[in-house]
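Quick start: read one record
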Amino acid sequence: MRNNLFIRGVYALLITVLLYACAKDKGYYSPISQEPIYKGNLYSYLKSKPGVYDSLVKVIDRIGLQKKLEDSTVTLFALTNSNFQLAIQNLNNTLAVSDKPAQYLNSVKYEILDSLLCQYIIQGRVASDSLASQDGKDVLGIRYGYPMHIGLNKQASSGFLNGGPTIVDLSDTRRSVFNRNWVTTETSSLNIQTDNAIVHVLNPDHVFGFNKFVSQIIYIPPPENLFKTIGGEWFTSKEASGGPDAVEAAKYVFDGNPETKFFLSSPGRFYLEWQFPTAVAANSYTLRSANDLQDRDPTDWTLQGLDEEGNWILLDSKQGEEFDERFQLRVFFFANTKAYKGYRLNIVRMYNGNDFQLADWTMNRNQ
């Protein structure tokens, strides 16, 4: 009798263990992450990690962000020394091609470091678990309110969907609502907590600046904008469907503001025109791509000048041009010393499709 009771007890115990094991087994092992906690402010935390955040601290000190990192509530996507090293290496490789002297974090312009680093410091605390129930989150940079986006990304592991580690994606939106225009990087660790901040550490292969560090340093400003310095009147052969006061009317391609644009739906061939109060010699012009679809960018066009006899003279012609980025400003030079009363930009073809958009057009004089 005792043996039967003992055997029954063993069976019951085995069944209980098996049921618990089956309930627990979900096909993959998902450990509970132990989030590090640092007793102190964010700036003190970065200083406590020599050999990891030395470059980041150097930039913070240069641009005067120490106070904010001590007493403001923020989320930092932390750049390690390797992230800055890659950026500096890329920069100096580019400078060496032009026989220009090398630059380092202590010599790069303050304004460039300031605007770029502030993209990595987000207003408010954003831990990874706060992103679980939403399709990412639009956030703002700490000092200038630059629009960024963060979202969860669960990796695959051993053939199981979402069975791997969870990471956070940080995206430079380039002020575009379309994520295909964004530049995105990933984290390598998450949710380090300080008294006033959450820290997510970026992958070591991320290059500081989201591909803008080198281009901003070697950027050469366009020549003198004759629309501003001389003035005049603008014209267009086709206007937006909403008329001259529409949200995306023709006037916005002349206003010098990259945030506005001129949009036309299936316009076919048309032109933009500027006439000066007196004849002026221009030998360059600029075009800036607008905020969204690359398909709408102009790719074929001609430029003409209006002479004293009222004739339109061909000055430049382009085919197959591409804008690699949104809000990209491109400068085009052409040989000319003659003064013209007006200049006309004839739009012939768009990159892919029929719709047209352009943020800005200017005529310029290169001294």
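Residues 33 and 41 are 22 Å apart (CA to CA).
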